[in-house]
Amino acid sequence: MDINVDGEGYLYNRDDWTPDVALELARRDGVDLGETHMRYINEARRMYDENSVVPPIRKFSKAMGVSTKDLYSVFEHGPMKQICKWGGLPKPTGCV
Fold this sequence. Notes:
mainly alpha
């Protein structure tokens, strides 16, 4: 699958995102996405569409009704970075 990403693997054009793109981006990082991953990714995309900003991890975990520890158990290498990368969202900035 040909996907236009930057040097860190984030999509250049978020309109190119599809669930299949998410699966491929995660596969390239050695992760098989499951239902739980996709639930978080889809919610982060919804929040981004609503607010035009990537939600901070604390706000996101609260909205999802989970702890940040729970997010790290699913996304081991930085939840918001992986959610954004695989979800076609901009790379989060600051403390995420």
